[in-house]
Input
Amino acid sequence: MIIVMKNGTTEEHITKLSNWLSERFNVQVNPIYGTGTTVLALVGDTGAVDKDALLLDKYVERITKVQEPFKLANRKMHPQDTIVKIADGVEVGGKKIVVMAGPCSVESREQIIDVAKNVKKNGATVLRGGAWKPRSSPYSFQGLKAEGLDLLHEAHKETGLPVVTEITNPAHIELFMEKCDCFQVGARNMQNFELLKELGQTDKPVLLKRGFANTIEEFLMSAEYLMAGGNKNVILCERGIRTYETYTRNTLDISAVPVLKRMSHLPVVVDPSHAGGIYWMVEPLARAAVAAGADGLMIEVHNDPAHALSDGAQSLTYESFEETMNSLRSIANAMGREI
Ligand code: PEP
Ligand code: MN
Output
């Protein structure tokens, strides 16, 4: 349920009403302060809340019921787009389409610093790279772990690029808080609710990837877990889902972009690398994502894809990343955006 307050309602009245609602009906009340209007987002069992009685409050403008199970992530709660700030000058959800680029895995100091410099040169504003790698096989490269995180931090200091990297274990949160700018929750952990609850207690941005077998509603419910804990800095990432098609690694659900933008106020990023699973598909899928209204892209770029320790087949070389960025500019402009 959403209660829209009249312009000019005092904070004192909002606090009084919020306290009364939470005590009387046992619901969580989240005030969202806009420029003029304040909205109270009620979460929990609002069945007993008497709408008519509430309308007797002269400061209440209107009341809307939210049918969907996700409340805080719902656009009805927050009609304007949310902009998530990853670092100074790097905001996801605004006019500029944010490109997060880098290798699948951090492999060495030389590698991550070289990739960081190159992606920066071609317009990426966030460095990606995995330190803890959730691999399908226990015999595959598992990542450099804490050393990888340190190397990402070094690459950040060297280039100024903020870092997004995947967290797989709540026990690592403290370490990540110091060494990265944005947590990544991978597709395999989208419904790791204990991890989500812990990340929800922090205020660091979270890039939440859609699980490859999850519906859009389940995806938004996972965002809700983060937000219910108090972390409002959530970025959604569509990275392809599993279908009967085997030609591609996953099927990029491009329709998820307009659906998510309509249902939620959270920014939406598309990862064309894990969707297509092969380098030559990255550019056309990235173009489609920008045309569909994505707020950002996550692209795997490697210094030597043929010898990458993970996901080499889908990684772009420096040259193909440069070409891709150039080809995205005209589409971004046509969408009234920048890249
Ligand atoms: C990744 O970004 O390297 C990754 C493992 O992605 P996903 O969780 O989407 O498979
Ligand atoms: Mn990868």
